[in-house]
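Appendix B: a complete holo record

For completeness, this appendix reproduces one full record from the ligand-bound portion of the collection. The bound molecule is zinc ion. The inputs are the chain sequence and the ligand SMILES; the output is the full three-dimensional arrangement of the complex, encoded as structure tokens. No fields have been trimmed.
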Amino acid sequence: MERSHTIRQDLATALRAGPATARDLSRAVGISERDVIDHLVHLAKSLRAQREKLVIEPARCLDCGFEFSRREKPARPSHCARCRSSRLTLPQFSIG
Ligand SMILES: [Zn+2]
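The structure of the chain with zinc ion bound, as generated:
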């Protein structure tokens, strides 16, 4: 409990420094990308309570330009929904 509270504070600190990908945040906080996503879901809820929000710059396909819409769970897609290309930008997160 204590540890995940601290992790979310660390994530918020990293996000306030500027936009970051799950990979950047994973390195900054020292947890796996999968755990970053889980913590971001919870962080988004606590930010709403403080009248802030987690801003998600969605992943985009480098081949056809398709932009992934904001998802309930901001996991990284593996393939373009339109052309199936795997050349995608990573979603970026920030606090706005
Ligand atoms: Zn595409």
